[in-house]
């Protein structure tokens, strides 16, 4: 039997983050508060740090004609790709609140978002660090999207 494993860091709280990561987490929180989630009541925010230092935000946008909405991660990634295609993504931070996110549950992107994140990483031929802010206040940090989707679709 073969095994896949990866390493991650667990930062105990927002106060323990590096200054750059605090700014990114704050941007994701602000984006989350602007989410349009009248059906699920599950608000998600994502923020990207681009190599230039620019921060791009996205949030989930639901639609009564499900599945016509879009997740926060993809909103941010597609916006960055459309507007800053030559500015690589360094980090993505994701936050969420709502009944679909009980306090003990692990926040993690859906499969579609993982695949889009993986292709974004592949397109720029450089890893994207992932920060997942948990409702407990802890932040799970992964060095690469590849760790979230080890057997994703690739070219």
Q: Which features would summarize this protein structure in a list?
A:
six-stranded mixed beta sheet; single chain; 26% helix; alpha+beta
Description:
It is built from three helices and six strands, in the order βαββαβαββ. With 155 residues, it is of the alpha+beta class. It has one domain: Cytidine Deaminase, domain 2 (3-Layer(aba) Sandwich), CATH 3.40.140. The chain has a six-stranded mixed sheet, sandwiched between helices. α2 runs parallel beside α3. The longest helix has 15 residues. It is globular, with a radius of gyration of 15 Å. The two termini are 26 Å apart. 35% of the residues are buried.
Compose a concise summary of this entry.
The chain is of the alpha+beta class. The chain is built from three helices and six strands.
Mean pLDDT: 95
C-alpha Rg, in Å? 15 Å
Unreliably modeled segments: none
By CATH reckoning, the class would read Alpha Beta
Structural class: alpha+beta
**What can be said about the biggest beta sheet?**
6 strands, mixed
- Looking at the structure, the CATH topology is Cytidine Deaminase, domain 2
Principal-axis shape equals globular
Number of strands: 6
Number of helices: 3
Helical residue percent band: 25-40%
CATH architecture: 3-Layer(aba) Sandwich
Strand content: 15-25%
Report strand order across the widest sheet.
1-6-5-4-2-3
Number of domains: 1
- Our measurement of the CA-to-CA distance between the termini, rounded to an integer number of angstroms, reads 26 Å
What is the H/E order? EHEEHEHEE
How would you name the CATH homologous superfamily?
Cytidine Deaminase, domain 2
